[in-house]
Design goal:
By secondary structure, the protein is mainly alpha-helical. 61% of the residues lie in helices and 0% in strands.
Amino acid sequence: MSVGLSLPTISGLAINQASWLAKRYIESGDWNLCRKEAMDCNLMQIEKTASAERYLAYTVKLLKELTKDEITLLSDGNAETRRALMWLAFCRAYPLIGKFSDTVINQKFNQHDFTLSTGDWNEFLSRESHEHQEIEDIGKTSRSKAKSVLFGNLRNVGYLSSSNEIKEAVITREMAAVIGQDIRFFPVFMER
């Protein structure tokens, strides 16, 4: 499977830890130094070193998807802004998730259809498999895990209720100006 079609396997967006890492990156300009410092202080708060390293690597992978201005906004922003920026990073790191967010979540929201279901995910993958044959090779377990991660992260950032109702993202003007067209990844009312 191509990198652009990879699906997430790690759940969560480590929003507070990402903010700490963003601040350290602004100071040092070195992701490797940030990772070392994060491991030294057990930033991820995971007992097993291998698990902490894996989760930290995943978080840095997401952060590397953000621009310098977005990293600055993440380090200084309020909780809503930090959640939104980590959602943005997640959508960029996993283009299939980004496309789902744009073509399913955002469009449903703008059509006042606020219910997101497992069927929406399955239909999306089915449509995408016509364009990308590799999707057919994704096993049932991997599809289910990715859906679980996706729905969990949507809940984590506050864009999906426990009853699978899509909630509007609060995007500040400053953030909208910084992210530009990538506002399409968020459930917000917009003109297309």
